Amino acid sequence: MNWENSETREVSIDQKIVQDLSATVTVFDSYFHDMIDFDTATSKYVNISRATSRGAEGKLSWQATKGWKFTATDTYLET
Fold first, then answer.
1. From first to last of its 79 residues, what are the pLDDT tens digits of the chain?
2. Residue 66's pLDDT is what?
3. Would you say 21 and 15 are in contact if contact means Cβ atoms under 8 Å apart?
4. Pick from 5, 14, 31, 79: most CB atoms within 10 A?
5. pLDDT on residue 77
6. Three-state SS for 3?
7. What is the pTM of this model?
8. CA triplet 31, 55, 38: central angle to 5 degrees?
9. Distance between CA atoms of 75 and 55, rounded to whole angstroms?
């Protein structure tokens, strides 16, 4: 059995919109191969094919006061 391997690329941009408001956008692309799975028919661990995962994440943060920060996030994932 081979080791599970992966390769990921990620780009992120963090931008202050106004003094107390900032936004972050991240996009990513991952490639996995020689993934390890359990085969219930043979009761053994086996390498399976490959998989990809890509998507984007967004975050909006507002520092309302010194003690209060509000954050909203969203993720889009395609597998």
1. 889 999 999 999 999 999 999 999 999 999 999 999 899 999 999 998 889 999 999 999 999 999 999 999 999 999 8
2. 92
3. no
4. 31
5. 97
6. coil
7. 0.73
8. 45
9. 7
Give CA–CA dist 1/61, Å, rounded.
45
**Whole-number Å distance between alpha carbons of 40 and 36:** 13
In the chain, the amino acid numbered 2 is N
Strands 21-39 and 44-63: antiparallel
Type of residue found at 71: T
Strand order across the 44-63 sheet: 5-18, 21-39, 44-63, 69-78
Q: Identity (one letter) of the amino acid at 26?
A: T
Question: Which pair of structure tokens corresponds to residue 28?
Answer: 């990513």
Both structure tokens of 50 = 């490959």
